[in-house]
Amino acid sequence: MVTTHNLGFPRIGARRELKFALESYWKGQSSRDALTALGATLRQRHWQQQSALDLVPVGDFSFYDQVLDTSFMLGNLPERARHFHGDTLDNVFRVARGRSAQGAEEHTACCAGIAAGEMTKWFDTNYHYIVPEFTADTTFRLDASRLLQQLAEARAQHVRAKPVIIGPVSYLWLGKAKDDTDRLALLERLLPVYAELLAQLAAQGVEWVQIDEPVLVTELDADWQQALGHAYRQLATDHIRVLLASYFGPLQDNLPLACRLPVAGLHVDAVNARDELPSLLKLLPSDKVLSLGVINGRNIWKADLAATLDWLEPVAAQLGERLWIAPSCSLLHVPVDLASEQKLDADIRSWLAFALQKLDELAVLATALNRGRTAVAAELAENAAAIAARRTSPRVTNPAVKAAVSCISPALGQRQSPYPVRIRKQSALLALPPYPTTTIGSFPQTAEIRQVRSRYKAGELSEAAYRTAIQAEIAHCIREQEALGLDVLVHGEAERNDMVEYFGEQLDGYAFSQFGWVQSYGSRCVKPPILFGDISRPKPMTVEWIRYAQSLTDKPMKGMLTGPVTILNWSFVRDDQPRSVSCQQLALAIREEVLDLERAGVRIIQIDEAALREGLPLRRSQWQAYLDWAVEAFRISANGVQDETQIHTHMCYSEFNDIIAAIAGMDADVITIETSRSDMELLDVFDDFKYPNEIGPGVYDIHSPNIPTREHIVQLMQKAAERIPAGRLWVNPDCGLKTRQWAEVIPALTQMVAAARTLRATV
Ligand code: GLN
Ligand code: ZN
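A: This is the predicted complex of the input protein with zinc ion.
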């Protein structure tokens, strides 16, 4: 008999119950008891929904983040959070979100304000965790209360519980040393705490514990590999069985190591590492369980069950009881329940599986393995029909798009002339002053604008009334920019709910769910659009608004688009063709829009690639291949224009050192980036690389309500000019202004424009 299990379940709730409860608690509108009660309700519901499994994950529930919970469990709080004498959960939130100083003087050392912990992406997902902090003085002390309480709850519910914890090596790997401590040097201090934890779980009668070591799918130096061996030799015990879990990719050169570790079982991502199965079967000692992640935990597509059984049945025959099956990774990265979707097109809906449906698929596979395919003949037939329908659907395949992709040649990504020639023509035409000022695109998204959009969507507002309302907003936005004295204006993006969804909604090949939310961090969720078919653009998407905006001003209007790589990286994408091909299709669609904008007389076009960096593969050895096709897609989208048309791009992050060549390869005439918090030091990378084109280093942080001063901006730009010739610098904020109020934007931009004027006086 094959054993079924799950690595983790989404905790946010099918209707984002946890999000709303958290936000209400943070606002002081509901009690902590109400919040913890909701947590218990969600856990209970989620265990109930997983009850068909042989082993159910416990401890995967978190009010904020599982890595932060691990830091608390291991007694590794940043110094600034250690002396809090309130409730632990409140301290979790303090570290997660930061808190501004408040309350009585005598509490400055305990309850006063603290800075939020740093947040970063969990491997190659869009989930963000709170980075553990280490110093030479870091010590660890076990507090397993949270996990043990969840275990007790699960037991009371007669759940066949398998506690889930992050392993010691991945925990150290995920953290950051705040001094020059070598994180691995802390392993000796950490292992006794893990040993104690395993002993406590064993004392509770736990048979299996899942220890996640996702570092196993990354490129590990010899010392990290040795650390894994050392850790699991130290932790080896007869009292509890360890299932060591890897996911998100193949093991590659860590495979022999993973097979050798003295644990009772190994979980591998069989969706991404199918090719490694023969080596695994050869190298894994015959007393160990092999858990295969056979259902993709990262996408929303139905699995092809018959095809899976074709390769899985022989493995099951070979392994017998030693075979376990599960989703490839925690289901944290997919929405909860397809059954909630009432508005999705019926065809597309029939091709999808969210978390609960994925568990159903797993159950079908298990039954087929245990009792033969005939025992689930109806389920398999239904699955086969859906897979076949999707494969042959004319909604998925568009021959014209396929033909256009096959005609892509390097010439398509090539501007007419090199940058020095272009910039001369552009300068002559645009006649901008030195240190030209601009913004990144969006202006405040007021409650009124949101209401206009949602009433229009709900059919309560006519098309004509909607257009009038948006035009009024654009006109207002342009009046404000003219009054501020900005040089290159934008229309303000009032018509856009989201920079990807807006384009997805107008492209053929995209679908939208109502409840397809996935946790991004804390209470924040995203609802990625579903890229299901060949992408085409039935009609212009932005031209009408930009043309209207340009008609209101003599200043140059910057047309605003989202780039193909960002649209791709923020979508659920197809599993039936390479990401690179979907990206090419998006690039062709955006290219058409660029050319239409140019024909409409728009002289400057910005193509945002906010998520280009996010698409980098886990392994560095694969970076170049990704960057090659991503940069090429950008170039295809941008480079069909005349020399005179100025292409801008924007990226709102501050790590360019390892991708600067690719950034330069995009060959945008102007790039605007986030720099204000790095004190312009980020520009060193551009300087060292001799980045040739124009740069707008952000001069103030738009995430903060603080108003920058003219002096500070001047200083920043002077630092910038030490690195980049002044003649190639623009002055702009770090990112779009949609989350700010007009009352913040006007004074901030006033200072920015004043700073640019001061700087001009110096050239
Ligand atoms: N043009 C977008 C805006 O201004 C860019 C947003 C982003 O980079 N995340 O809102
Ligand atoms: Zn940005």
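The pocket of zinc ion (ligand 2) is lined by residues 440, 610, 650, 652, 735-736 (CB under 6 Å). The mean pLDDT is 96.
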